[in-house]
Structure formats: C-alpha cells, structure tokens
Amino acid sequence: MSKKYTIAISIFAVIIIALLSFNKADAGEEIVSTEIGITHVNPVDFNLRDIKERGSIRLITRYGSNSYFIHRGMDRGFEYDFVYSFARRNGLNVEVVIVRPGENPIDILNRGDGDIIAANYTITEDRAKYIAFSKPYNLVDQILVLPADKFKAGIELADLDGLRIAVRNNTSYLTTLCDLRNQGYNFEIELISEDIDTETLIAGVSEGRFQATVADHNLFQAASLFVEGIAQGPVLSEAN
Fold first, then answer.
1. Residue-wise pLDDT tens digits, 129-160
2. Which residue has the higher pLDDT, 151 or 107?
3. What string of DSSP letters covers the chain?
4. pLDDT tens, 65-103?
C-alpha cells in the first residue's frame, strides 16, 4: 500500500500557482484526455488581475458537509471559508460554481468558467499534468467504509476477498483501488454513476445498497456524525 495522496488546493498558494499557470496556454484549445475524463487540457489565458477587474473570484467545488453547503441561508464549508477569507482581504466577492453530475472540475477550471478548485481535491500524477496544485493544506488517509455489522476489529484488506467496492469513475479512489488490485488484492470494483457523491455512497453502505466504498478520512468523520451503521475499515492510502 505504498501509493500516497495529499489533498489540494490551498487557497493562498493557488492564487499564485494555479491562476498564473493560465498564461502558459492557448485559450479555448479542446483535446480529449481519456486518462481522467477531461476535454479541456489547456487552460484559458487568465490571471489574478482579470479576477480583480471582475470583482469576484469563482470557487469550483462540490456541495457537501465538508467543502461547501448552505446553512440557514448562509454559505458555509471548510474550503469555502478559505476562499472567502482570501476574497475579503482582496476586496472580492465569492461566486460558487457547483460541479454538476458527470462534470470534471478540471474542465470547468481550464475552460475559464471558474478560477480555483477547492473541493477536498486529491493530488494525483494524472491530474497534475493538466492543472497546477498548491502546497497541500490537509493530509488525510483514504479508508474503506464498511457496514458496521460487517466490521471486525483488526480486519485487513486481505480478509475481504470478493468484496464489491463502489466508487465513481475518474476519481483518486478508483486509482487507489486499481493500484491495490495490481498488487494482488482480490476484491471487485463496482463503478457507479458520477451523479452520486461520496456522502451518498457512504449512506448507501449504511442502507445496504453498497457493500463498501472509499472515502477520505475527514469526509468519513463528517458523515459519521449523521449516518448510522457505518464503520471505518482498513486504510487504503496513507497521508504523507
């Protein structure tokens, strides 16, 4: 289990790194990448000065209890708070761009419909070919999520032969599982609709619709506050 990932993006570094990387490409060039399911490989020509002229920064994120959500009519979320803090210091408003089902955040960023991805986003080699990551601000393990009634203390991945693990396509979770399969672990991968987010998958494990899934440890901890009947299984990929 030597494959390790970190979480990106850190707001204050990404304004320098990711936004300035827009200047390296031709605007609007569209090429299909089959590696991670993106179509806009090269970013538009855009920078922080353009953002300040517009008066707002567009945050690309997913709706959920960790990154961004609305509570009593107010915008909330760990990543949202990062961006909001930066925006206030620079006299900017924040516009939230929610990733739609089947859509890749990299496409939104590179075609110019958003300025920054901040969505508990994992650094992978394939993603780093098309976007610039900041220094990580959150290091987490990727863990297996199991039904509580199937969990046993000390359980390891080698003990779960034949288990069907549900994950979305084009995710770091799928990359982790494929790496483990290549190492000889005997489990099945169930690819599910990209309309289903990680929190919904965790709820599906609780309800018996899925045998297991994968989640970042912080997402599991947040979900476990309101989802009953789930347990943390083996660590699949350790934080650096």
1. 888 888 877 788 999 999 998 888 788 888 88
2. 107
3. ----B-EE--HHHHHHHHHHGGGGS-TT----BTTTTBS--SPPS--HHHHHHHTEEEEEE-BBTTTBEEETTEEE-HHHHHHHHHHHHTT-EEEEEEPPTT--HHHHHHTTS-SEE-SSEEP-HHHHTTS-----SB---EEEEEEGGG--TT--GGG-TT-EEEEETTSHHHHHHHHHHHTT---EEEEE-TTS-HHHHHHHHHHTS-SEEEEEHHHHHHHTTT--SEEEEEEEE-B-
4. 778 888 888 998 888 998 999 999 999 999 999 988 778
**Is 0.85 topped by the overall pTM?**
no
For the stretch 5-30, pLDDT in tens is 333 333 333 333 333 333 233 333 44
CB 80 within 8 A of CB 61: yes
DSSP bridge pairs for 144: 214
- The Cβ of residue 203 has, within 10 Å, a number of other Cβ atoms equal to 20
Query: What b-and-e string marks burial along 15-34, b requiring 16 or more CB atoms within 10 Å of the CB?
Result: bebbbebbeebeeeeeeebe
